[in-house]
Amino acid sequence: MNENFSRISRLIKSKIDDTIDKISIMSAPYSYSYIFKYIIIGDMGVGKSCLLHQFTEKKFMASCPHTIGVEFGTRIIEVDKQKIKLQIWDTAGQERFRAVTRSYYRGAAGCLMVYDITRRSTYNHLSSWLTDTKNLTNPSTVIFLIGNKSDLESTREVTYEEAKKFADENGLMFAETSAMTGQNVEEAFLETARKIYQSVQDGRLDLNSAESGVQQKQPQRQGRTSLTDDTQTNKDNCSC
Amino acid sequence: MFGAFGKQETPKEMEEILNDTITPQELEKFEKVYMKELKDKKCVTAKTQFEYAWCLVRSKYGADINNGVKIFEGLCKDDPDNKRDHIYYLAIAYTRMKDYTTAQKYVQAFLEIEPNNMQVMLLDEHIEKELNKEFKKDAAIAGGALLVLGGLLGVGFALAKKYHDKKKPDEEVRKNEPAN
């Protein structure tokens, strides 16, 4: 009786595994090992949605209305031959949204903090954005400071050196970008991912915690890839 | 029509937004502020109403979403300056409750004010897709019913024909054959 039961359950398990295999073959080009959660924050009109759009679609949106609440975008990138899916939450910059958008900070692995190099006020507000980020994310969250609209050199109000100094003092990564020309946009998103991935490799990020903003797609079956950690495999063995 | 977004990607992006739910703790935080203002001043500021309603719309419970809808409907009248935001969240709320017909009305109202808004166009596309799915489901059920009916009629005709043919002399049957 018991033997029959285990035989049936083994049969069912193998059928399920076959199906999973078929599905994973079908979706192979879209498969990835990790998911990183990003947020994009900063004052209204600094170009957050345009940066996201430039990164996910490689296009510049010339007329971009104010974001309502949040927008979302994804792209799969590669770091150290690992496919990583970036899930990016782009928050509205208008003050009236700020209280609620704070609930999106939780569990972000990367935070892109954006100001506009042609509007000094957006730079002056950075300390308030930084306080929010430090309070609402975890210590390992990678913060990348972005000075956007670098194509508008003639109307610049914040120098590169000044912002670089601010970034260094606060331990932030930094680059000036242009969502219009695409300059440095790719780099900002990818550098952030590299830094997060480094934290994962060093064991500084707890993958089991929802707070870390990193999910590892872990194959459930034994011996499928080297990514499966040993304890998981052993557990699988015991249950059969 | 769908601007620069890839057609294949769009529904997934929208689904993420629609599936995103607020934690009960977060919701409670905004509820407390709302209730406190209601108790102390008998009237709640538009900002507090908006924040609470937005959180309600992100709840996983239908009753909360419904309450959010009521607040947003009130805000459309009381806070007309930010009407576009309220209409957007009404559309989101009805979409989350799977009332796609009402959701579509709000989307259309929004697009009349701002015809090229990407966020709303994505939502519109999502609603359109869901309505199509519903239509196909209904059509499939109706089609299935017709098939069954057709099948029954066919069997009926065949039986009747068989009965009828049996009565006819053999020659007449042969004459009919080429026509079949």
TrEMBL record, chain A:
Biological process terms in GO annotation: defense response to bacterium; endocytic recycling; Golgi to endosome transport; phagosome maturation; protein transport
GO terms for cellular component: cytosol; early endosome membrane; phagocytic vesicle; recycling endosome; trans-Golgi network
GO MF annotation list: G protein activity; GTP binding
Compartment(s): Cytoplasmic vesicle; Early endosome membrane; Golgi apparatus, trans-Golgi network membrane; Recycling endosome
Enzyme Commission numbers on file: 3.6.5.2
Cofactor(s), names only, from the UniProt record: Mg(2+)
Name of the protein: Ras-related protein Rab-14
TrEMBL record, chain B:
Family: Belongs to the FIS1 family.
Transmembrane regions: 139-160
Bilayer topology term: Single-pass membrane protein
CDD domains assigned: Fis1 (cd12212)
Superkingdom of the organism of origin: Eukaryota
Protein's UniProt name: Mitochondrial fission 1 protein
GO cellular component, as recorded: mitochondrial outer membrane; peroxisomal membrane
Pfam family, one: Fis1_TPR_N
GO terms for biological process, alphabetical: autophagy of mitochondrion; mitochondrial fission; mitochondrial fragmentation involved in apoptotic process; peroxisome fission
Classification via InterPro entries: Fis1 (IPR016543), Fis1_cytosol (IPR033745), Fis1_TPR_C (IPR028061), Fis1_TPR_N (IPR028058), TPR-like_helical_dom_sf (IPR011990), TPR_rpt (IPR019734)
PROSITE patterns (alphabetical): TPR
Keywords in alphabetical order: Membrane, Mitochondrion, Mitochondrion outer membrane, TPR repeat, Transmembrane, Transmembrane helix
Localization (cell): Mitochondrion outer membrane
TPR repeat start and end residues: 84-117
